[in-house]
From TrEMBL:
Pfam families tied to this protein: Amidase
Protein name in UniProt: Glutamyl-tRNA(Gln) amidotransferase subunit A
Gene Ontology annotations of biological process type: translation
Highest classification ranks of the organism: Bacteria, Bacillati, Actinomycetota, Actinomycetes, Bifidobacteriales
Complex formation: Heterotrimer of A, B and C subunits.
PANTHER family: GLUTAMYL-TRNA(GLN) AMIDOTRANSFERASE SUBUNIT A (PTHR11895:SF151), TRANSAMIDASE (PTHR11895)
Molecular function GO terms recorded: ATP binding; glutaminyl-tRNA synthase (glutamine-hydrolyzing) activity; transferase activity
Annotated region (Disordered), positions in chain: 105-131
Length: 455
């Protein structure tokens, strides 16, 4: 049924880079056979899923929406894919994104735009616009994304879907194409909070193949979501982040946010304002640390090991260095090149302490801010993004205005804490608004109760 929806919706949406119909049908048939044989199945067995093309899938082309990986067929599965297969979940295909997950609108894909299902003249958010649009357009009931600075949550907000960035280390990154390794995290994209809980329990937990994976089982998120559905939040203390409201946030976003906060109060939550004073430096720190890690991680695309290889033209010596230069020039898009250059600069001798070193110190201060806030409250809240989905071209020519839109999502990545975005109604422009909960590290279950209560 979902393959049929994909066929009819894709001409308008373009959420998928590749549809793996044969693989999905084969997997679905295998589950039917197991069910018929009376075998015990996992909770999500038979439920199909779309995968952001930042996650490697054995035998299915994986490009990270970059020309440099065109034609690359991974010889192995990411751990999350292995877990989905073990749970009996058919894989519908690979979804579009900003090249190497760098962007907030999916306009930086080398393979064209994905349209927002609510208004096809608007972006679906990014970088995981494909996964969010696929779920929002009912092409897939579930999807996976990756979130380095908001790429699961902001597209969730823009498409009226649910997106979760788990605790750093809570879901294995083995087989997630590295963007900025100290920030990257795989997580669920769904239509309901309970679906996210089910999916996160399926993909979460310790993985010896990822050295940053937390050696303890995934928290009990499904029971927390079910508890939340009772809509009783008495005893819960909610902190409204002072630095993530008011100035810079669109009127329509602020209105829906305030109404949702009132709803939390009506369900018995105590709401107080808390200040995280160093959040004003979060964007600056992120846009130094992230490109630094990008410049290092993307050094592996050298024309030797994966995908594209461009040989120097006649008259230019056919050396390895020249081949790499021509391959990277042709294979990377402008935004990726911008970040590689920025990151290389920030890491270079003489500038390292001033840029990268300072940014890491700011990161430590932000972590301390969160720790202090969580001494006062159980969970923090903010809008997911300062605006609703914008029109194509509105921000793509001005990188800084694009970066500024990440203000509310970046702090959770810098601090490694879990966060969820859920739909909170429509703004006056008719576009969805996202509401964000942030919880303490390794307490992802804390997100799920109030999120399920509010949805
Ligand atoms: N928009 C952010 C960026 O451009 C987030 C990217 C992400 O989470 N992958 O870096």
């Amino acid at each position: 049924a979902h393959l049929d929806v994909i066929e009819s919706a894709e001409p308008q949406i373009n959420a998928f880079l590749k549809v793996s119909a044969d693989v999905a049908r084969e997997q679905a048939d295998a589950i039917d056979a197991k069910r018929a044989a009376g075998e015990e199945l996992a909770p999500l067995a038979g439920v199909p899923i779309a995968i952001k093309d930042m996650i490697v899938t054995k035998g299915i082309e994986t490009t990270a929406a970059s020309k440099i990986l065109e034609g690359w067929i991974p010889p192995y599965d990411a751990t999350v894919i292995t877990k989905l297969k073990q749970a009996g979940m058919p894989i519908l295909g690979k979804t579009n994104l900003d090249e190497f997950a760098q962007g907030s609108s999916t306009e930086h894909s080398a393979y064209g735009n994905t349209n927002n299902p609510w208004d096809t003249e608007r972006v679906p958010g990014g970088s995981g616009g494909g996964s969010a649009a696929a779920v929002g357009a009912f092409e897939a009931p579930l999807a996976l994304g990756t979130d380095t600075g908001g790429s699961i949550r902001q597209p969730g907000a823009f498409t009226g879907t649910v997106g979760v960035k788990p605790t750093y280390g809570g879901v294995s990154r083995f087989g997630a194409i590295a963007m900025a390794s100290s920030l990257d995290q795989i997580g669920p994209v769904t239509r309901t909070v309970l679906d996210s809980a089910l999916l996160q329990e399926t993909i979460g937990g310790h993985d010896p193949k990822d050295s940053t994976s937390i050696p303890s089982p995934a928290p009990a998120m499904v029971s927390a979501a079910l508890e939340g559905q009772k809509r009783d939040l008495s005893g819960m203390k909610v902190g409204l982040i002072k630095e993530l409201s008011g100035d810079g946030f669109d009127e329509g976003v602020s209105q829906r946010f305030t109404e949702a906060v009132e709803e939390l109060k009506a369900m018995g939550a105590e709401v107080v304002e808390v200040s995280l004073p160093h959040l004003k430096y979060a964007l600056g720190a992120y846009y130094v640390i992230m490109p630094s890690e990008v410049s290092s991680n993307l050094a592996r695309y050298d024309g030797m090991r994966y995908g594209l290889r461009v040989m120097p033209p006649e008259g230019v010596p056919a050396t390895a260095a020249n081949m790499m230069a021509y391959t990277r020039e042709a294979g990377f898009g402008d935004e990726v090149k911008r970040r590689i250059i920025l990151g290389t600069y920030a890491l270079s001798a003489g500038y390292y302490d001033a840029w990268y070193g300072s940014a890491q110190k700011v990161r430590t201060l932000i972590i301390a801010d969160f720790n202090k806030a969580f001494e006062q409250v159980d969970v923090l809240v903010s809008p997911t993004a300062p605006s609703t989905a914008f029109k194509f071209g509105e921000k793509s020519a001005d990188p800084l205005s694009m970066y500024l839109g990440d203000i509310a999502t970046i702090p959770a990545n810098l601090a490694g804490v879990p966060a969820i975005s859920i739909p909170a109604g429509l703004s006056e422009d008719g576009m969805p608004v996202g509401f964000q909960f942030i919880a303490p590290q390794q307490h992802d279950e804390v997100l799920y109760k109030p999120a399920a209560a509010l949805e």
